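Protocol step 4 of 5: obtain the predicted structure for the target chain.
Materials: sequence only (see below). No template structures provided, no constraints applied. The aim of this step is simply to have a reference model before the mutagenesis design in step 5. Sequence pasted as it appears in the construct record:
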Amino acid sequence: MLIDLHTHSTSSDGTETPTELIATATAAGLDVIALTDHDTTHGWDEAVAAVTATPGAPTLVRGMEMSCQGRGADGDPVTVHLLAYLFDPGHVAFAEERSRLRGEREVRLRSMIDRMAADGYDVDADTILAAAGPSAGRPHLARALVAAGVVETVDDAFTDLLRTGGTYYVEKADTPLDLAVELIADAGGVPVIAHARARTRGRLLHTDHILELAAGGRLGGLEVDHPDHSPEDADVLRDIAREHDLVVTGSSDYHGTNKTTPIAARTTAEDQFDALVSRATGVPLVVPGGRR
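Step 4 output (structure tokens):
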């Protein structure tokens, strides 16, 4: 089976609508796909409708990727992404935190755009935010810079102008990782730490923080097989998962044309997917009359 548990649509920083994403997944022969946009469930309904209407469409796992802050390997705070699967979107405390995070995203992006505009770059905050949708992020600004001819590619924008710690970079107040794990679990979902050893993205989450969360009993899994993980780093995470009864997931982190990684570049084993589903007590899977 082909199971990809980490993809993005235009509801956050992907370039395909949820409908287009389901079409891509169907054409690629996926059996299961998770929609995991940043800090929002906005694309869920469209994705459900697309799965229902598309012959041979994969099973849809409703999820999200949450912006968090953990303890870095150097002891300082570090940005961490936490995948949340099959949670109840109506859980009040979790819904309120998602709303706060989206507000942080807008304030942060507007500040970055205003700084760049003050330095003469051809960018406008209202225009970019209006096009960004419910979960605005740096990729939306990067695409605007490409359209304005400031840089040639989205990757070029992140290499210089939009890089973490750069001249125009602005921090946002992300959710403490321990709290995020609790919120997802309380909402009936399964929290899975995303790409925890992605060295090319910058500083890493301390493995001790992962172990502390595993010992707490509410962390559900680790995203082990990811395009940004070396085989050696994937093995480190796999060993932690094995020792602490965590689900091992694999995924492409597909963003459409925003990244070169194709859908299903990495996948999840069927037994691990079944283990993930068995740990959820929130939203059920949407199962079309298709592959699974």
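Step 4 remarks: The chain has a mean pLDDT of 94. The radius of gyration is 18 Å.
Proceed to step 5.
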